[in-house]
Design brief:
The chain is mainly α and 121 residues long. It is built from six helices and no strands. 78% of the residues lie in helices and 0% in strands.
Length: 121
């Protein structure tokens, strides 16, 4: 589906490509490349409200996927996870709630993009 969307985009069929990219992100909520292409196409089509909604959806989906992956790894590797968490706390890399003090680069990029889209609304 991703290849079809790229072909439609290259052929200038932007609306068809948007539909296909939406289908990809529906099946794979943490697919960064599909979200990025979808955001670009929505910007080209000047669908700013829809782009803002997609950015929010992308951030939520990506954060959920990362948390799920981390929880899965922590469950399988209890001792290394406990030691890593203790080290991260000691180095000041975690908040008192145990969340990272720094944000994932992709999420930071999407938040910046969301701020720019909100200015256009």
């Amino acid at each position: 589906m991703l290849e079809e969307a790229a072909e439609d985009e290259a052929a200038g069929k932007l609306e068809a490509a948007v539909t296909l990219y939406e289908a990809v992100v529906k099946q794979h909520p943490a697919h960064k490349a599909a979200y990025n292409r979808l955001m670009i196409l929505l910007r080209k089509l000047k669908l700013y409200k829809k782009e803002a909604a997609v950015i929010k959806q992308a951030i939520a989906g990506y954060e959920t996927a990362v948390k799920t992956r981390q929880a899965s790894w922590s469950a399988k590797n209890a001792k290394p996870a406990r030691l890593s968490k203790a080290l991260a706390k000691a180095l000041g890399m975690l908040t008192p709630k145990g969340l990272p003090t720094s944000e994932d680069e992709q999420i930071a990029t999407w938040r910046k993009r969301l701020a720019m889209v909100k200015k256009k609304l």
